[in-house]
Amino acid sequence: MISSKPRVSFVIINWNGLNDTIECLNSLRQISYPNYEIIIVDNDSKGDDVKTLREKFGNYIRLIQNEKNLGFAGGNNVGINLVLTEGNSKYIMFLNNDTVVKPDFLDRLVARAESDLRCGIVGPEIHLYHQREIIHSRGGILSLYTGWRFIGGTFHPTRFKDDGKYTLKYFSGSAFMASCRALKEVGYFDEEYFYYAEDVDLGYRLFKAGYRILCEPGSKIYHKEGASVGGNVRNPLTVYYDTRNSIMFIRKHGRFYHRLIFIPWFVFIMFVNLLFYFPKEIKVFHHRLKGLAWHLTHRVSKTPIYSKFIPR
């Protein structure tokens, strides 16, 4: 019976990504889990995205149209606020619009979450869309001295099958399911990040609050890495926020001795990448310097920042 399955609310951001969003929604129409809703938050797309989605999917989706681009963090927070205010769902499934899912992926995620009362986040095994034998992520680990990385990762094949070997500290924002109870306790995505590393921040806050971050390898999705930012993970937008927010995370969560090691290490890696990826990197390197320079003139808040329309 449907009532025996906890309700899950999907929150999917669309920003000028109509074709990807349509493919994602078509794959969701095939899932076997019976009790869910889909909330599309449009981040002020410039084309006819909203009109087309309404015409094509009708009542299958709930569509929120933002008046400006609130970024990944702010856009998702709009969806979180709606779900928690209504109070009808037990879980929120955050899913990038540039993903497609297997029909049983949500059944497996819910079963894993329901089996562990300490579960704050559970995510699927994320594969690359165009190279489906490659695991992009099985969750992430981090060090306040050296930063974070995915388990698996773009350059590693499916030899990463040792589920449980690592203590996960976050999950890729491209796909994870969070407990509404946990989000009420620790808060939403920190909007100071705007785009990039807000998933790391939220996962780490949940971890510090005593929740578990889990991967369910039987649940699988396929991700067009970088499609949501134009198909190029080395574009200026990503490069700038990657640099700015990597340091911001350490400033928010690390102590002074973490920063003393991390920041020189990060700058060193920047220049190593410049040499390794030359001449491609030189085209975007000034955006890395802009992300670094941001910290010379800005303070960061230790407390997560949310939009004024979100209740405290």
Description:
With 312 residues, this protein is α/β, with parallel strands linked by helices. It has two domains: 7-229, Alpha-Beta Complex (Spore Coat Polysaccharide Biosynthesis Protein SpsA, Chain A), CATH 3.90.550; 236-297. The protein is built from nine helices and ten strands. Strand 7 (135-143) and strand 8 form a beta hairpin. The longest helix is centred in the C-terminal third of the chain and has 21 residues, at 256-276.
What is the gist of this entry?
The protein is an alpha/beta fold.
Overview features:
10 strands, alpha/beta, 312 residues, 9 helices, 2 domains, ten-stranded mixed beta sheet, Spore Coat Polysaccharide Biosynthesis Protein SpsA, Chain A
Q: Any idea how many domains?
A: 2
Tell me the helix content: 25-40%
Q: How is the CATH topology of the largest domain named? A: Spore Coat Polysaccharide Biosynthesis Protein SpsA, Chain A
Strand content: 15-25%
CATH arch. level architecture of the largest domain: Alpha-Beta Complex
Based on Cα principal axes, name the global outline. Answer: globular
Structural class by secondary-structure content:
alpha/beta
For the record, the CATH class of the largest domain is Alpha Beta
- Distance from first to last alpha carbon: 36 Å
